[in-house]
Amino acid sequence: MDIGTRLSQPLTNANTAQYKTEDQRYLVARAAESLIDTSYDWVAIAEAAREATRLRGLAAAEWPDNAVPGSVICSSLADWAYEKVGLDNPGGSKMTRFTTPGHWDAFMMRL
User: Fold this and answer.
1) Exposure winner among 23, 82, 96, 105, fewest CB in 10 A?
2) If DSSP codes are grouped into helix, strand and coil, which group holds residue 5?
């Protein structure tokens, strides 16, 4: 199947419309590469589950500013890399660790 057919489907969503320079694309890839072998962030997953089920309690902490994450999930890794190189991202500067695929979806729909 031609990729154009898949990309034209109504449920396909991507941020290809977001302007990025070649330097920014390179820096995003390098930022992501720097996190190879970083452990999976089960605390963020548990926090997302807690929030989704509306359970109340102590919330996990966001990463400190300018810190390199010690653990990530795919959505937070991408958010962190975009933030690091100055690109718009779904978490902005207030939420990075807890960025979910749903946040990326909503972000891309606004592009």
Assistant:
1) 23
2) helix
Indicate whether 2 belongs to any domain.
no
Is 74 exposed, middle or buried (CB count within 10 Å of its CB: 0-12, 13-18, 19+)?
middle
What mean pLDDT do residues 77-95 have? 92
**Tokens, residue 8:** 């034209």
Indicate yes or no: pTM above 0.90.
no
Q: Count structural domains, the chain.
A: 1
* Any domain includes 40: yes
Mean pLDDT value across residues 1-11: 76
Percentage of the residues of the chain whose pLDDT score is greater than 90: 45
